[in-house]
Amino acid sequence: MGEAxxxxxxxxxxxxxxxxxxxxxGDSVKAVDDVSFTIEKGDVFGLVGESGSxxxxxxxxxxxxHDKTDGEVSFKGRDVFALSKKELRELRTxxxxxxxxxxxxxxxxxxxxxxxxxxxxxxxxxxxxEVRTKVLEVLEKxxxxxxxxxxxxxxxxxxxxxxxxxxxxMALNPEFIVMDxxxxxxxxxxxxxxxxxxxxxxxxxxxxxxxxxxxxxxVEHLCTKIAIMYLGNIVEFSTKEELFDHPLHPYTxxxxxxxx
Length: 260
Ligand code: ADP
Ligand code: MG
Hints:
By secondary structure, this protein is of the alpha/beta class. It contains nine helices and ten strands. The protein has one domain (4-257): P-loop containing nucleotide triphosphate hydrolases (Rossmann fold), CATH 3.40.50.300. Belongs to the ABC transporter superfamily. Keywords: ATP-binding, Nucleotide-binding, Transport.
């Protein structure tokens, strides 16, 4: 057993249904019904399930971007729902979220270098004097160059934009990153490039990821452990090899049949 970085126990997240046609299904949507899992240091943990199964809600709740309904989440041994303001700021540096649509998470009016630099300064990681050098370092690590530093998000392709978002996340030197469908909006050939970037960064920095996808073939090349989600619950969890060789749950078998 490695060192536990993130422990999730019996996590529940229900969203209230205020009005409208969904009311007939009850007063709340059980987005996450009763989920437990542990991510160890260095794990690349895949969370796979169809749209609406509760993956993004898990990603946001464990980073405390949502309140929980019930259960426990601890990061590095600390209850994330009982952090002081200072500890919450630390959590915001130690953890990052990268999601599907890079355009929506980049300010269109900020040059790429400024967006990354501001985040680094805001988190007290660099001085104003050294910021440009540090920004360039992290851009280069993500396959970009000085050519890109003074450009605006709209001047980039989808794949490059996702590299920028990843660079901004990496700039804060996090220990844990939630990747929520980070390649779903990209062409297949670009998906492969971004997935290679993730494995390089993971190898070099010993990062731990929760990698969310609706597509088993995306996590196949990246993840060591995989949890399968269905209707707010994890229905199967095992190592990648076990899951591909001996799937147990019918839903896992259905997902596997779609892998080329
Ligand atoms: P996934 O990421 O697997 O597609 P989500 O976690 O986004 O699934 O959604 C799970 C369920 O929770 C869905 O039924 C969705 O409509 C609902 N849901 C997600 N976010 C909210 C929200 N902020 N308010 C109300 N319902 C939500
Ligand atoms: Mg989602």
